[in-house]
Amino acid sequence: MNKPRVKVLIVEDDVVDRMACRRAFAADPDSNFELIEADSGQQGLLQARGAAPDCILLDYHLPDVTGLEFLARLSVDGGGAAIPVMMLTGADSATVAAEAMRRGARDYLVKDVDGRYLDMLPTAIHRMLREQRLLVDKRQVEAKFRTLVEQIQAITYIAALDAPQTLLYISPQIQMLGYTAAEWLSDPKLHASRMHPAERGWVQAAIEESRMAGAAMRLEYRLMARNGDELWFRDQAEVVRDEAGEPLFMQGILVDITQNKLAEQALQQSQDELRRLAAHQENIKEHERKRIAQEIHDELGGLLTGIKAYISVAMERAAAAGSPAEPLLADASALAQDAIQTVRRVITDLRPSVLDQLGVWAALEWYAGQIEQRSGLHCISHVTPAAAALELGPERSTMLFRIVQEALTNVVRHAEASTVQLDVDLRDNILQLSIIDDGKGIDTERLLNRESWGILGMHERSRHFAGELKITGTPGQGTSLLLRLPLESGNNEQ
């Protein structure tokens, strides 16, 4: 089997020591060592540049330079990082060995008087070369990682776990905030100082909690650029662990989401404006209903009542004259009465007068009674004393009544229920209204259907007053509606 070849440059002025090293390498059964020898530092530097050895075995004491000076010149030549160096020192030179390691030597061996270091020499060279390969691989991986990271359109960073404000690395993309990576890393407080004041407190607390606990993090907050621009970022980080599962550091990414946030804010503003417009249209519609109902009551209702009165007078006069009343008059009187009832029903559908005259709580109980009378659905209504004592303004009263009206209409039309219960309560300045039936249960797809205008209308009515409406259905067990309406403290008339 072919043994691997290892080219070693020996920089040693002592001929005997060089011979001893040659014998030690020749006796190694695992590798073929090719030796290049230099008896001075200058010659060794020339050989390092020209012969391209795999490693250098360097004696500290040389006739022209010291081993430390050799390391310094080798580093200046650009070969210090590429060629691993093992320093040979005397038995009393621990300080020299430490300094040599600090200046770039990869390892060292102590030359003892008995020559035992020669037995360890091949193994030490193999270990150093293995570490060199690992180092080269690590640097290649790091170079690829940095190249990849620094090409993406986001700021990447590595943060220490035990010091929440300390960053170990940040990518050059930090320039989008007007800072260099060196500036950002040199000042641990710079990140927090550039956070928007309205968010700084909770963001700092969340970052510290995540890094101290070694837990994943996902935040959205604003950072102020050096030129004063306000940018939105999504800060997302994960814990990097070693093979044993121990946490090493946090690796994160800051993604500029300013345009998304601006679009989101514009969309939210548009939705708010649409909701205000819809609420305004609802108010106009309610006023128009009230006006039409009033006109029907005053005009058509009055006419029908007058017609019935004239018919009644004609019938009474005929009876007084002793002649039988015209049968058509009795039919006309009955038709007039039916027309009056129809007008009353239309007026009630448009705008029940009880809502304006007696208030929303009486209107809800009255409407539940109307549903029970018309459909046979058993309606149980209960308004707690705390809720009954609450005086809602006309707009909220109308909203509440219309939601109950739509919900009970849906129960009659779709639920196939026999009983429905309506409860109103006031808890912690939140008005709670629930409607629960024992029907077949609403279909989930209908809840998700954006064309269910009745359900959509209930949601929009409640949202206009910051209410929360939740509808749930259980097949075979019925449907429940829960409305939670927050009330402004000390101002319930809005």
UniProtKB/TrEMBL annotation:
PANTHER family: NITRATE/NITRITE SENSOR PROTEIN NARX-RELATED (PTHR24421), OXYGEN SENSOR HISTIDINE KINASE NREB (PTHR24421:SF59). GO terms for cellular component: membrane. Residues 217-269 form the PAC domain. GO terms for molecular function: phosphorelay sensor kinase activity; protein dimerization activity. InterPro entries: CheY-like_superfamily, HATPase_C_sf, HATPase_dom, His_kinase_dom, PAC, PAS, PAS-assoc_C, PAS-like_dom_sf. The modification 4-aspartylphosphate is found at D59. CDD domains: HATPase_UhpB-NarQ-NarX-like, PAS, REC. It comes from the Bacteria. Residues 400-489 form the Histidine kinase domain. The keyword Kinase applies. Keywords: Coiled coil, Kinase, Phosphoprotein, Transferase, Two-component regulatory system. Residues 7-126 form the Response regulatory domain. This is Response regulator. Residues 260-297 form a coiled coil.
